[in-house]
Every structure is written in structure tokens, then in C-alpha cells.
Specification:
single chain; 170 residues; mainly alpha; Ferritin; elongated; binds MU-OXO-diiron
Amino acid sequence: MVSDIIEKALNHQIRIEAESSQIYLAMASWAEVQGFEGVASFMYAHSDEERMHMLKLVKFVNERGGHAEVSDLTKPPVSFGSFKEMFQKLFDHEVMVSQKINELVDITLKEKDYATHNFLQWYVAEQIEEEALARTILDKINLIGDDKGGLYLFDNDVKLLVTNPGPEVE
Ligand code: FEO
């Protein structure tokens, strides 16, 4: 059984993951209309992954006797300036998510909720990978700068980047 404090904290994380999915969906759409299919498909896949992160939390809260809430979400931006700015935003966003996961883990320890603490270890590991992937992409884009040919190759390249398949949600 989750306590009210844990339920509230997990519901807050559900909202963060849902908003992450929305942000990456907006990035996918923006990249697609610019004609960068590789970046767009990467972002669409990433958006799906965030939805899976959200669903995994929803199922957990309900299984533990809580009630997962679906809240309203903040509207993401429509455009993202340049790819460099967009991937910087993605990296900064993932760092923020990692901080939120760490805060959640901290709450579970204070509440002595070891089941939730154990459940959250998956997210801790996932955030290490997500940050590393975002950093790798950012390094690539920083090398390219505004070179048009480089951006074309980058678009092809990013298609090949393997993202996590995400958790299985039953
Ligand atoms: Fe679900 Fe990318 O954090």
C-alpha cells in the first residue's frame, strides 16, 4: 500500500513523464516539417518511450492500492530554434527528470517505502542512459555547427542511434 505522500509524489512524476512525452512529440513534429526525417523519427520514438515511463508508473500506483491521476499538461513550444538548441533543451530536460527521480527516491527512504524505492531503481538506471544518449547527440551537433551538409548526415546518423526499447507494460 502506498502512503498519501508517496502517492502524491508518484502522481507528480506521472505528470512529468507525460509532459516529457508531449515535449518530444512537439520536437518530432517541428523536425518533420523542416524535412529532417531522421531526427523526427528519433523524437517520435523518444516520445513513445516517455509515455511508457508514464504508464509504468500509472500501473505501479494502482497496483499498490493508490490511484494514478491523469492531469492536465503544460503546452510545449511549437518551434525550437535550431537543432543545437533543441538537443540542448532535450539534455537539460533529462537532467531535470533525473533530479526529480532522485528526489522521489529520497522521499521513499524518508517514508521507509522500500517497495517503491526498489521500483524506482529502474528509473535511476534509465536516467543514466537517457542523459548519456542526450550528451552524445549534443556532442555530435556541436561538432557540426550550422553546416548544411553536416546536418544532412547528422539526420541520417541519428536514425541509427539505438534507444532503449522501454519497459514492458502489461
Ligand atoms: Fe522519462 Fe526521459 O525521462
